[in-house]
Amino acid sequence: MSTDKKVALITGGNKGIGLETARQLGKLGITVLIGVRDEAKGEAAVAELKKDGVEARAVKLDVDNSADYAAVAKLIEKDYGRLDILINNAGIFLDGRKANETSTTSKDILQKTFDTNFFAVVGLTQALLPLLKKSLGGRIVNLSSILGSNTLHATPGSFIYDAKTFAYDASKSALNAFTIHLAHELKDTKIKVNSAHPGWVKTDMGGEGAQLDIVTGAKTSVELATLQDSGPNGEFLHLGKPLPW
């Protein structure tokens, strides 16, 4: 089932920002594969997307299960021959929200957060790189957060100065480092790697007080997934504007 249409894989694509990203990419004529842990929820999301005219497919992909990486790579190789876009969207937030609890954050919380938000992204991306290299212009989008900015965390008076959620923030800082390093390694290829800050979005993770709707929250991922060859590489962006690392 090879196709001339671009093919995108979005982890955690059955709800929230991931689902809206799938919808927006699909409306651009891109075939969307949504990686899901729960296949029933994946099929429900696909049915919703197809109502909007989006060519979508649910694929079994639990980012915390490395065995799924090889399986999804094999499926994409067999049915599409390449991967054009990888959006590492899946993520978790396990910290408390009331105060800075860095000194009492448990090793378990740190490990679980890093397993999903960092190690899974590295492992899946490495598994899919051979397929991305077959694209005429591969794009890797890592869903980060402004809370991963060490510069802003260290700057008194910044928007996030008093928003210290240690495990989540540190995992996104590590993810940003992966973006920088991988982009440098691939700088002489047609692949571009960038970190995206979606904004404070009204999702389950965003919680109370979130400012942006999901449609706006997906825009940065879509922009980075569809960059022209002259677009940025190895940058941290929100709606086209660079953020400090």
From TrEMBL:
Keywords: NADP, Oxidoreductase
Matching Pfam families: adh_short
Alphabetical list of InterPro entries matching this protein: CBR1-like, NAD(P)-bd_dom_sf, SDR_fam
CDD domains to which the protein is assigned, alphabetical: carb_red_PTCR-like_SDR_c (cd05324)
Protein name (database record): SDR family oxidoreductase
Family, per entry: Belongs to the short-chain dehydrogenases/reductases (SDR) family.
Superkingdom of the source species: Bacteria
GO molecular function annotations of the record: oxidoreductase activity, acting on the CH-OH group of donors, NAD or NADP as acceptor
